[in-house]
């Protein structure tokens, strides 16, 4: 069975930035952005020669708060159904939100391997504020800057160990 990694999280946390970065690691992109639906993009990536499919989720085109929550829940459920591993991204800029707590709860109940990533940690000074995410009751998170790529190596080392 192929390895499928889905990236989920609220809009604007940096999911697509990481997705694009993962695809750039590959010299020849195979099937990149062959979106099956309007709001999900699929691409191929590899880490140290281990290949996997990445799914970028998002594209929420909704305006009321209720539908917005529903749409995020739908995306998270699709990721749970489709993926073998899930990257749950939040960001230190906006901090922990109620929606993040809801997503975390859905993922925890799914029993799938979940990698919690705190994005927009662009420098050492954002490491301390990131500790607020421990209030989710999690043991570990990865800090990352999708913009620069720092931190992504440690995450990928651990993800491919699951495969
Ligand atoms: P998505 O909605 O979760 O897919 O988020 P995007 O990848 O579209 O990023 C949303 C915004 O955050 C864009 O303006 C990005 O340039 C910015 N962004 C993404 N990653 C980082 C990061 O690591 N650091 C900073 N400072 N900005 C970032
Ligand atoms: Mg996006």
Characteristics:
163 residues, alpha/beta, Rossmann fold, six-stranded mixed beta sheet, 6 strands, 34% helix, globular, binds guanosine-5'-diphosphate, binds magnesium ion
Description:
- The protein has one domain (4-162): P-loop containing nucleotide triphosphate hydrolases (Rossmann fold, 3-Layer(aba) Sandwich), CATH 3.40.50.
- Helix 2 (65-82) runs parallel beside helix 3.
- The protein is an alpha/beta fold and 163 residues long.
- The protein has helices at residues 15-24, 65-82, 98-110, 127-130, 152-162; strands at residues 4-8, 40-47, 50-57, 85-91, 114-119, 142-143.
- The protein binds guanosine-5'-diphosphate and magnesium ion.
- Magnesium ion is lined by residues 15-16, 58.
Biggest sheet details: 6 strands, mixed
Task: Look at the structure and give the mean pLDDT.
Answer: 86
SS summary, helix count: 5
What is the H/E string? EHEEHEHEHEH
Condensed summary:
GTP 1 binds at residues 9-16, 56-60, 119-122. This protein is an alpha/beta fold.
SSE topology sketch:
Blueprint: E1 4-8, H1 15-24, E2 40-47, E3 50-57, H2 65-82, E4 85-91, H3 98-110, E5 114-119, H4 127-130, E6 142-143, H5 152-162
Parallel strand pairs: 1-3, 1-4, 4-5, 5-6
Antiparallel strand pairs: 2-3
Helix pairs in contact: 2-3
Bound molecules: guanosine-5'-diphosphate and magnesium ion (MG).
């Amino acid at each position: 069975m192929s390895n499928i990694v889905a990236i989920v999280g609220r809009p604007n946390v940096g999911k697509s930035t990481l997705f694009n970065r993962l695809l750039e690691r590959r010299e020849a992109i195979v099937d990149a952005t062959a979106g099956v639906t309007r709001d999900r993009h699929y691409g191929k990536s590899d880490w140290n020669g281990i290949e996997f499919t990445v799914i970028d989720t998002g594209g929420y085109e909704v305006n009321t708060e209720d539908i917005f929550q529903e749409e995020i829940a739908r995306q998270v459920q699709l990721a749970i159904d489709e993926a073998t591993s899930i990257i749950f991204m939040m960001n230190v800029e906006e901090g922990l939100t109620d929606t993040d707590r809801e997503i975390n709860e859905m993922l925890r109940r799914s029993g799938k391997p979940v990698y919690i990533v705190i994005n927009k940690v662009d420098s050492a000074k954002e490491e301390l504020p990131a500790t607020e995410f421990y209030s989710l009751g999690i043991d570990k998170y990865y800090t990352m800057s999708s913009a620069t790529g720092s931190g992504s190596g440690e995450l990928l080392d651990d993800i491919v160990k699951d495969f």
